[in-house]
Amino acid sequence: MTRLIKSLYLLCFWTVLFSTGAFGAPKKQQVVLTSQGGLEWNSNKKTLTAEEKALVVRGDTALGADKIVAYYKDGNAGKDSEVYLVKAFGNVIITTPKQTIYSDSAVYEIERSVIILKGNPVKLLAGQEKMTAKVLELWQNKDMAVARQDVIAQNKARRLEADEVTAYFVKTGGKTQVERFEAKDNVLISNDKEKVQGDFGVYYVDKETATLQGNVKISQGNNFIVGEVADINMKTGVSRLQMLPEKGKAKGQVRGVFIPDSRKEKKVVVEKPKAPAFIKEEESIDERKKNEKLLDASN
User: Fold this and answer.
1) 279 forms bridges with which residues in the sheet?
2) CATH number of the domain enclosing 145
3) Residue 175 belongs to what domain range?
4) How does pLDDT run across 5-53, given as a tens digit for each residue?
């Protein structure tokens, strides 16, 4: 049976009934679904569909979209029905006290407190940090977000890129911010002074320091050094690079390549000497005649 509820008052009443857990249960939070365009209730499929400025609120998490479908299961022994899954489509925006996220679609797994978002790209804002990716998983109970595919985490001049980045959130001074990023596969951390590449890296946001491992390369302009493990301080510009010892083998050496900047080399211009002026033939003949006259006069 499908029912369409257009009254906002009735809509709110029904959404309270289809909440997570019985009234007064402290461990579960109600899921409230509202919509400006009304609500469709399909009791056969056990779904609630909201369109036109649809909004789902669960605790301090709000999810808005063009269309939202909530899936529920019937309660046992007189308990209320329970929403276990929410799907959102079009212009999705999620707001929590810790972050704001924009995406094209989202799947909210209520029981695990996990929101899986997809977009081109998904955008996460947390404090001064901005992270974009094709896919993002927000794990609310673990205070972390896992981003995959074309991941970029940026804060002013600092930029972190990788195939996969996990952001860990922490609350300090009454504000929630990213404590650290853990990145793997094709990791690149850069600012306006240097670039650091590696297979795996951990970046601490507040300290502006990073540790990278595996095929590490630190570049400044055309100059670079390569090794296996690097400790980077993006604030001071001081980096320490070393090789990892292998069992039964001698420890490898760190290698550095320094290429002079050709644009800074000054070209030395050598001025060619001026060619001597040639004496015209007629001038030399006249000079001889004058000398002959002077000799005759002296005789």
Assistant:
1) none
2) 2.60.450.10
3) 128-258
4) 443 333 443 444 444 443 333 356 788 999 988 889 998 999 999 998 9
